[in-house]
Amino acid sequence: MAQRANIQAGFTLIELMVVVTIVGIIAGFGIRYFTNYAYTSQVKQVLPLLTSISEKERIYFNRNGKWLASINEQVLHDSLGVSLSRSGNFCFVVSCQTAATCQGGAAVGPLYVATGNAPSFQVRAYLRDFRIENGVQVVNDNPALCVVSPGKSAPDGWGVAERYVVLSYPFPVDGTVVDGSNVSWLWRNGMSFTNARAD
After folding, report:
1. Please, what is the Cα angle at 19 between 15 and 20, to 5 degrees?
2. Cα gap 193→84, rounded to integer Å
3. Is 117 left (phi over 0), alpha (psi -120 to 50) or beta?
4. Residues 6+ away with beta carbon under 8 Å from 97
5. pLDDT > 70? residue 68
6. By CB distance 3.0 to 4.6 Å, which of 44, 60, 83, 146 could disulfide with 91?
7. Could you give the C-alpha distances from 190 to 23, 106, 113, 122, 174, in angstroms and in order?
8. Rg for the chain (alpha carbons), in Å?
9. Percent of the chain's residues with pLDDT above 90
10. With contact defined as beta carbons under 8 Å apart, do 90 and 128 qualify?
11. Rounded distance, CA 191 to CA 126, Å?
12. β-pairing, 67-68 with 102-103?
């Protein structure tokens, strides 16, 4: 009689567990990279507005001999002519280095981010967020940092409140600058996203 060959069909439990573990590890990395990519693309929406405020700030200086500094978006709108009402995910602040070169009350000191040079002014775009309380959306704005202009659209809810993107003028040299708090600020084309990074 012919003997039947013992043929194994299918996979063992251990083989399946190894495959599931490998797929889980790959998915874990992929989700993290996708999340960071999506967050970065959302944050980069602010680039045209930062550039516009910077350009208007330089025109303002040429006309008035001083930089405009304000934590109030309505003041920025009225004085610089920049419309910020549709940028609901951000609140904008302009700070200068000294009261002698600023108009509108200089925002000096802790508002300044290390650049490696002496900036004339910096524009910050604070991320806005909201929370749900009793079924109602409540926006997390901090008026000590930034006063949102009236009628501004609500944030989408993807940002981390009080994180920010900063533009410094004149542009610092591209690269990394470490500040007094031992934070490494990465500068590219006059802007730093260091504080806005997702954790």
Report:
1. 115
2. 20
3. beta
4. 106, 108, 112, 118, 119, 120, 121
5. yes
6. 146
7. 41, 21, 12, 10, 7
8. 25
9. 12
10. yes
11. 14
12. parallel
For the entire predicted model, the pTM comes to: 0.74
Q: What are phi and psi of 86, to 5 degrees?
A: -95, 0
What whole-number distance in Å separates Cα of residue 124 and Cα of residue 34?
Answer: 26
Strands 130-133 and 136-139: antiparallel
The answer to whether residues 139 and 159 touch, using CB atoms and an 8 Å cutoff, is no
CA distances from 22 to 28, 30, 114 (A): 10, 12, 42
Query: Rounded CA gap, 121 and 58, in Å?
Result: 10
Q: What is the CA 1 to chain-centroid distance, rounded?
A: 77
CA dist list (Å): 184 to 146, 175, 177, 187, 191? 24, 10, 6, 10, 13
